[in-house]
Amino acid sequence: MALDENGDPPRGTDWVHLCVDMQRLFWPGTDWGLDWMPRIAPRVAAFCERHPGRAIFTRFIPLRRASDGEGTWQAYYEKWDAMTLDRLAPGMVDLIPELERAAADAEVIDKHVYSPWVETDLDDRLRARGCRTLVVTGGETDMCVLSTVLGAVDRGYRVLLARDGLCSSSDEAHDATLDLFRRRFRLHVEIVALADLDARSEAPVAE
Q1: Cis? peptide before 140, omega within 30° of 0
Q2: Any stretches that span the bilayer, and where are they (predicted)?
Q3: Residue 97 — φ and ψ, nearest 5°?
Q4: What's the pLDDT tens digit per position in 20-66?
Q5: Domain 15-61+92-198 falls in which CATH fold?
Q6: Can you give the residue ranges of every domain in the chain?
Q7: Helices 171-184 & 144-154, crossing angle to 10 degrees?
Q8: Is the pTM of this model over 0.85?
Q9: Are 132 and 10 in contact (CB under 8 A)?
């Protein structure tokens, strides 16, 4: 069974599920709410349950106040002042309830920018696990997921991007991002479905 345009799914154990920023502050109803998140949440949670111990979760942590920002981040939080820590209700940076059980014993990486690579020890943690392949889910496809995937590519990881485990506030930007990966990053990034990953008795890993 082919996973995607690039060929058959590999099998093995040296892989990690990297779940990007599936947090309460991105649930519909906030200024950053993603309408798709409720749609993908059950799929991502179920994938975590089927592959316990594989997930690392990232969380986007806003600045406390706009004046704490450097460069364009100050202007960013002046626009999104309602999403600063001083204005958010307690617990809004937490992962969504659907992932609480899966995340109870999992590693969680906090970051203050789109990329999880530049101010964290994520790469060291993955190397310590012997990870060669990342299954990526979460949001937004065209922002934090995009930055996550490009950072993974730069570090030599094979990326399996789960198209049915992603969400965005923009259908057009989501589609354009997936098209970019298909057209320009085929040797690094494969667009897959979570159901296809589950179709094999062993989970995916780099060849």
Answers
A1: yes
A2: none
A3: -55, -30
A4: 999 999 999 999 999 999 999 999 999 999 999 999 999 999 999 99
A5: Rossmann fold (3.40.50)
A6: 15-61+92-198
A7: 10
A8: yes
A9: no
